[in-house]
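Dear all,

This email documents one entry for the complex benchmark we are building for the journal club exercise. For each entry we list the sequence lines for every component of the assembly. Then comes the predicted three-dimensional structure of the complex as a token string, followed by one or two observations. Please use this as the template for your own entries, and keep the labels exactly as they appear.
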Amino acid sequence: MSHPKIFITRLIPGPGLALVQKHFPNADIWPAEMPPTREQLLAKIRGMDGLLCLLTERIDAELMDAAGPQLKVISSMSVGMDHIDIPAATARGIPVGNTPGVLTDATADQAFALLLAAARRLVEGVDYIRDGKWTTWHPQLLLGADLTGATLGIVGFGRIGQAVAKRAQGFDMQVLYHSPNAEPAYGAQAVDLDTLLRESDFVSINVPLTEKTRHLVNAEFLAKMKPTAVLVNTARGGVLDQTALYNALKSNQIFAAALDVTDPEPLPMDSPLLELKNCIIVPHLGSASYKTRNMMSKLAAENLIAGLKGERLPNCVNVSVYRS
Ligand code: GLV
């Protein structure tokens, strides 16, 4: 195939972009800051052989059919795959690529940054000064929670969950995890979810969003946490019921929450969560370091190029396409 047609849904970071353009100088790249709308995407995808997308696009059967039967590969610059209908791609024999591994440390760093920020009330401290309230050092000002000796419960002990556990060791934390079939690592101990919620001072959510994990963090889950506990979510917004979280934070059923992800994204400005001092929310920045985003873009480009050449993708999420 000398001139495959490729659509890239945004200007991805340099290394990936350069790699795609080296192999396919005619790649069609969406230039705008905002992603294409659904209508624009459906129009653009028509006749494409390859698609490189981000987590902002919904890639479903309708879109695959709009592309046409020549669509050879879908490559997403993300580790999460909840925006792609994988069974629909598999049914059409289309390999789907993602970018695991390269963002593990950055995302675990972000979980820890949020954990510390919520524990030590950093955002409240910044606001306190900006609001002109800093008049003296006070022995009771903005007191928070200690990490040393505290228990961290990790829900989802995959690559990122384990990297969170590794960091917790450096803070002398006791680590529990709940994750079907995951082997212990970094001194963490496997427990059932109720035990984890009952015993943890910090709870980090690190599961992918699936039909099983949607609203895993609901009123019942939050009611089992300690009133002094901090919840951190760097996974997907859909794992958490935001109304239940609002109620738990507003009534001080838990101490604080820190969210890297929300549902929907962006979070509407009238979300009641934004009114709460004990809730830190940042705009889905888990992998947002220069080095990590460069590595993600390169891996996404490599998946795309391999798929277009008819080679096995370096990171394929539906390897069963190679059996059929
Ligand atoms: C980020 O959330 C990703 O899935 O890569």
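Observations: The CA atoms of residues 116 and 202 lie 10 Å apart. The chain has a mean pLDDT of 97.
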